Amino acid sequence: MTEPLDPDMFDPLCPSGLMPIRLGDKWSGMIIRCLEQGPRRFSELRVPLRGISAKVLTQSLRALERDGFVLRTAHSGPVQRVEYALTPLGRSLIEPLNTMCAWAEEHWEELLDAREA
């Protein structure tokens, strides 16, 4: 069992929202971050991604699945559940994502200044 996701994983003031280099859509990089430690249910993803609507989260997950980054697994039984996990291809994005996040943190002030201008 994986640890619960931190509800404040993505601080509203975090550079993730300002990231000019995007993987897929606005939310894809953050979804990948949420799946980094193991499979998650839809409701678990909604905790740190509280700014995303259910519809947009579904669209983003489907796009990540279509592109081979995320695997959707439906578990049947008395309690039906669906989990999302990174594929090996999706996991290969972690290091480039780390690099992009480090770059955004390094240029945070410049990004803010540019957005305000």
TrEMBL record:
The keyword ATP-binding does not apply. SUPFAM superfamilies: Winged helix' DNA-binding domain. Gene3D superfamilies: Winged helix-like DNA-binding domain superfamily/Winged helix DNA-binding domain. Residues 14-112 form the HTH hxlR-type domain. Keywords: DNA-binding, Transcription, Transcription regulation. InterPro entries: HTH_HxlR, WH-like_DNA-bd_sf, WH_DNA-bd_sf. Signal peptide: none annotated. It holds the Pfam family HxlR. It comes from the Bacteria. This is Helix-turn-helix domain-containing protein.
